[in-house]
Design a protein that fits this description.
Helix content of chain A: 25-40%
CATH superfamily of chain A: Class I glutamine amidotransferase (GATase) domain
Strand order of the largest sheet of chain A: 2-1-3-4-12-11-10-7-8
Mean pLDDT of chain B: 92
Number of strands of chain B: 12
Low-confidence stretches of chain A: none
Largest interface: A-B, 41 and 39 residues
Strand order of the largest sheet of chain B: 1-4-5-6-7-10-11-12
Oligomer: heterodimer
Number of helices of chain B: 10
Radius of gyration of chain B: 17 Å
Shape of chain A: globular
Structural class of chain A: alpha/beta
Structural class of chain B: alpha/beta
CATH class of chain A: Alpha Beta
Number of helices of chain A: 6
Order of helices and strands of chain A: EHEHEHHEHEEEEEEEEH
Distance between the termini of chain A: 15 Å
């Protein structure tokens, strides 16, 4: 029997694509739009595209800020994707003054001048963690985190210098790329996460 | 030092009434197969992305298109861009709900450029692809709309700069002169467009052999799109990639 996973519905992400990726990993995704929806699920996915401030505003509107902080602190199965990963940090250069979920220390910053921004397309990740296979994955981002947070395993990528492509600790993982459209490497990561 | 973003190979499925079709200079469409079967075959062969364009753009065609997208999405684990008749934000929403990752805007953006900004603000630049069809007219490349039927009084390079400012994440640049002709991509056009903007350019129109893709990348394209060489000529994406890698182009293996 497949396991149900709540996907926070931000309305502007490629949610159907994420649903399809989770289904291929043997999970049964269901859209989540509020705190009460969250309670019934064993695992949660936070997708997200768009601007940092809009992402936080959406979580606040759904009253999900504190529940998600508690969820992650309790090491319950959690995966966040792209902007979803950035929201875990304390702040972002994209939206000065807006506080992130702050469950990971550090700030998200813009790629340096001199490289193509947005960082679009397939790029290679590396990791010493078993959670992240090496290989090409699909990115679409203008901002990223660079300093390795203490206590987290990481995958790194390079675009004008190294940056964090993914972080994982216990049952909580976050990726800057899009595993749902990252071919076999992305599929492996979703399958790994689905074994929480 | 470090890694680089790979050059992408993108098969394009022009669809009408739920079937893949292909013509020359946008005319004389022939049946080329099922969009589900073809997109999955190309994924297997190593395609980096799939583009599906609805060339029917009728009301019934639109419903068919959403069904096609749903069916393709279930097993497609690479990015999917969908276009054809995208005129309003709710068209984009419907395509994303069906399973698209990116949406391509063409005529509606030329008619009302603010639409590109609205799309980019609502769904992000990563979702907003602007498709530009272009044709050499006397002394410049002019923008075409309505699937090549109308020649507009707009300079293509100027339009490239404008859509980048409006928030387009990528430009899908199709040479009408080369479309389906197998004369190779319009390299002069690609050089000019890739110097005009810093966002990725997807080259389209005219591919025949692997070296045509090589030339497009050398001319500044970040991705190369083709249709008939994959549908009819049994040119395998894996072979093209091996050839490109041998010539020093970084591709996803």
């Amino acid at each position: 029997m497949s396991r149900v996973v709540g996907v926070i519905d931000t309305k502007v992400a490629n949610t159907a694509s994420i649903f399809a990726g989770l289904r291929r990993a043997g999970l049964e995704p269901i859209a989540v739009g509020s705190t009460s929806d969250l309670a019934g699920h064993e695992a949660v996915v936070l997708p997200g595209v768009g601007v940092f401030a809009a992402g936080m505003a959406a979580l606040e509107r759904m009253s999900l800020v504190e529940p998600l902080q508690d969820w992650i602190a309790a090491d319950r199965p959690f995966l966040s994707v792209c902007l979803g990963m950035q929201l875990l940090f304390e702040s972002s250069e994209e939206s000065p003054g807006v506080r992130g979920l702050g469950v990971v220390c550090g700030a998200v910053t813009r790629f340096p001048d001199g490289v193509v921004i947005p960082h679009f397309g397939w790029n290679q990740i590396e990791s010493s963690s078993d959670f992240f296979p090496a290989g090409d994955v699909y990115f679409a981002n203008s901002f990223r985190a660079t300093s390795v947070p203490e206590g987290w395993e990481v995958a790194t990528c390079d675009h004008g210098g190294p940056f964090l492509a993914g972080i994982s600790k216990g049952k909580v993982a976050a990726v800057q790329f899009h595993p749902e459209i990252s071919g076999p490497v992305g599929a492996t990561i979703l399958e790994m996460w689905a074994r929480w | 030092m470090g890694t680089v973003v790979t050059k992408r190979i993108i098969p394009c499925l022009d669809c009408r009434d739920g079937r893949v079709v292909k013509g020359v200079n946008f005319q004389g469409l022939q049946d080329a197969g099922s969009p589900v079967e073809l997109s999955l075959r190309y994924q297997e062969e190593g395609a980096d992305e799939i583009v599906i364009l609805d060339v029917g753009a009728t009301v019934e065609g639109r419903q068919n298109q959403l069904e096609t997208i749903r069916a393709v999405r279930a097993d497609l684990a690479i990015p999917l861009t969908v276009g054809g008749g995208v005129r309003e934000l709710r068209d984009i929403e419907a395509l994303l709900e069906a399973g698209a990752d990116k949406v391509s805007i063409n005529t509606a953006g030329v008619d009302r450029p603010e639409f590109i900004r609205e799309a980019s603000e609502a769904f992000g630049a990563q979702c907003t692809v602007v498709a530009i069809d272009t044709k050499w007219t006397y002394n410049r490349w002019s923008v075409l709309t309505r699937a090549g039927r109308d020649v507009r009084d707009i300079d293509t390079l100027e339009w490239c700069r404008q859509v980048a400012e409006l928030g387009a994440g990528e430009i899908l640049l199709t040479s009408f002169d080369r479309d389906g002709t197998k004369e190779g991509y319009d390299l002069k056009l690609l050089r000019a467009a890739s110097s005009a903007v810093s966002i990725p350019i997807i080259a389209s129109g005219g591919a025949r052999v692997a070296d045509d893709l090589y030339d497009a990348f050398e001319a500044g394209a970040n991705a190369a799109l083709a249709a008939s060489i994959f549908h009819y000529d049994s040119l395998h994406i894996s072979d093209i990639k091996a050839h490109l890698a041998q010539r020093g182009v970084t591709v996803r293996q």
